[in-house]
Design goal:
- There is one protein chain.
- The protein is an all-alpha fold.
- α1 runs antiparallel to α2 and α10 runs parallel beside α20.
- The longest helix has 34 residues.
- The N and C termini lie close together (11 Å).
Length: 487
């Protein structure tokens, strides 16, 4: 069972009926049962479920201890810090092993560690656990006494695999107190699910065909090919992740539960710092609150602030994956911001000297373009097979000159024929227009709800038909593959 499967949505319909038939105070039990069933369906081995369950039990136990030490015993700060550190290490030991000692253990055990023991969603739920324990330590929240209610918070099925990463204070009441049926929230959730499928099937998966061809066949494809693949990968990455977030939010809305927004049109950012305010917001805020600020933030001078920033983005890189390319990618984003911070006074002086207003027509466009190029180049490193290949691909942009591929139909040999390629461009333009409208403060779902029922359903059916006809199973695909396996 996975998020874009028919089985998942049949499972969801049954769960919705059960959830709204149960009394309010028992509805959380149905969500816990559904989360267990869902998680069991996506793992390969029972050992993964045991590891996942152990992390939940250990973190719950240490949460109780931390809360009691802070509120009922005259414990010292040192003692509570030791308990916090021990709880975090033991609860997230699978994550630490996979990031630090995974390669060594794989060679010793002669087994694929990820397939054997590493649970699905490990990176995401480990962040939830760390935030939960740290918030109890700082007195921001109370420990959850009921282990089953705590297990629901960690394992809530719409977001367990790809986030967003919720805080206990944001999600606990919504999960545990039960939600009354709200037709408006339900319909908005339905619209988010449709949007998520559009992003996944009409943009991300189509762009991925071209991206895979270029990245997997370098150095056959260099120069302009790399630029096109880099641009499409930045779009694929965004559409795919936004799709998963939209599906998670949409499904949660069906139960009256609101998950935090994870993206805020990141490619409209005017700086790399602004990009990280908009990209994977739940991760960015987590890194700020539990890495950057505890390190000292900007409270210890400019030099230390820059060191803290680089360390924070190094953690971000390591969190995203194993290998030097991820560490380099994280440090590169940190370096972007350090350089931006250093040249900010110079930019302000030039702006004042030339009497350029901040809101001048071309100023935001120039900043957005520069930011996008910097981010896109970093994405090439992120997607490449290794750091060396990523750097070589970027170098080929400068050293290999082949602009004629833009006019001789060479692009149509990258896996998409001209119809599919132009359909992809059309869908990307739709995404751009929707993002621009939302950036200006217009809520499209609210506007749709203002229409009469005939217009609303015409929109729903029209978009669904577009996805069914022109999704990744469209041109050149077998409809049976969609019905039985591809959806």
């Amino acid at each position: 069972m996975n998020y874009p499967s028919l089985v998942y949505y049949f499972f969801l319909i049954v769960l919705l009926v059960i959830y709204y038939l149960l009394p309010m105070k028992y509805r959380w039990i149905s969500l816990l049962a559904a989360s267990i069933i869902f998680y069991y369906s996506v793992i390969d081995r029972k050992m993964q479920l045991i590891v996942f369950g152990s992390s939940i039990i250990i973190s719950w136990f240490f949460g109780i201890i931390l809360y009691n030490l802070k509120n009922y015993y005259d414990s010292t700060t040192i003692v509570r810090k030791i308990v916090l550190g021990t709880g975090i290490v033991l609860s997230t030991l699978p994550l630490l092993i996979s990031k630090v000692g995974g390669g060594f253990l794989c060679s010793v055990l002669e087994k694929n560690l990820n397939a054997w023991v590493i649970p699905v969603g490990l990176s995401f739920y480990s962040m939830q656990i760390i935030a939960y324990l740290a918030d109890i330590y700082s007195g921001k929240i109370k420990a959850q006494r009921n282990p089953f209610k705590y297990a629901l918070f960690i394992s809530f099925f719409p977001q367990i695999i790809q986030g967003p990463i919720p805080r206990y204070s944001q999600l606990s009441d919504q999960l545990l107190k039960g939600r009354r049926f709200d037709a408006e929230i339900f319909v908005k959730g339905f619209m988010l699910i449709i949007w998520g499928f559009f992003l996944k099937l009409c943009i991300a998966d189509k762009a991925g065909i071209v991206v895979n061809r270029v990245f997997d066949s370098f150095p056959t494809y260099q120069g302009i090919y790399v630029i096109i693949a880099g641009v499409l990968y930045s779009i694929q990455q965004y559409a795919d992740f936004l799709s998963c977030t939209s599906l998670a939010q949409g499904v949660s809305n069906l139960f009256g539960i609101n998950l935090v927004d994870n993206f805020m049109h990141p490619y409209f950012a005017v700086s790399v710092k602004d990009f990280w305010r908009r990209w994977h917001i739940s991760l960015s805020s987590w890194l700020r609150d539990y890495v950057y600020i505890p390190l000292g933030g900007n409270r210890k001078g400019t030099f230390r602030k820059h060191i803290h920033m680089l360390l924070t983005f190094a953690v971000s890189g390591i969190w995203h994956g194993n290998g030097y390319k991820y560490l380099f990618w994280g440090l590169l984003h940190g370096l972007y911001q350090v350089i931006g911070d250093c040249i900010k006074p110079v930019k302000e002086k030039v702006r004042a000297t030339l009497k350029i207003r901040r809101d001048q027509m071309f100023s935001p466009t120039i900043h957005r373009t520069i930011t996008y190029i910097l981010v896109m180049l970093a994405w090439i490193i992120f997607r490449a097979d290794c750091l060396k290949t990523g750097i070589s691909m970027i170098c080929s942009i400068v050293t290999v000159h082949n602009p004629w591929i833009l006019t001789n139909d060479a692009l149509y040999s990258l896996g998409l024929d001209w119809k599919e390629f132009h359909l992809l461009l059309f869908c990307i333009i739709v995404l751009l227009l929707v993002s621009a409208v939302q950036e200006n403060g217009i809520n499209i779902r609210d506007r749709v709800l203002e229409k009469n029922i005939c217009v609303r359903w015409a929109i729903y059916i029209g978009v669904i038909l577009f996805i069914v006809i022109f999704g990744t199973y469209g041109y050149g695909y077998d409809a049976q593959a969609f019905i039985y396996g591809g959806f």
